[in-house]
Design brief:
Length: about 230
Amino acid sequence: MSDLAPLLTLDELVEAMDALLVPRRPGAAYRALGEPLRRPDLISAIAALPPGKRGIRKLRTAADLAREGVESVMETRLRLLIVRLGFVEPHVNVGVPVPSQVPAPRGAAYVPPARAERTADQHSAEASRRWVWPDLSYPSVKIGIEYDGEQFHLRDARQVARDRARQDLLHAAGWRVLSFTAPDLDDPRRIIARLEGAGCPLAPRGLARRRRELERLDLEWDQRSARG
């Protein structure tokens, strides 16, 4: 990883680190990069590198931005963009309890997060619940954010049915769900409008960060257009 730092952009490094970190569920199908790391171990390994190593500052910044539980590169890209557009960073694949009376999507597993320590009362309450994990979320305002990849989510009829059933479960739990696709990532102002319209929280100094990001993206667009 350290040898790649000078060759990759910051976002590409974050994507690579997210892919190396522990997935939400063991054996996630997309993960084929060996034994997953915990984020503190990744940060410690980078901290141990020589201070003068080429790309070390970029590596440290990327490690600060990397998160455990990410299940696709596009989830990483969407999360980073949301933050740069001035919003509070959304949670990554946090379990949402949903009513057990709602029919479950066929083939979906609903298991309470193993890392959560639960009291006897919570165990009793969970007996009547299942769990769904939105890709990204704001639990405080009950907003889930999903990235729908065209090949996997939009062309596979069974996956589309499962996605819709998952959204039904979240709606039954009182959540609102926003879905994004690849073209949305090229239209940041549309993303802003949808997140603001849903009530997603703005970060401190978020508007200044948003202005800088939009100026940067507009400049990149103008440069690409000029090259043409």
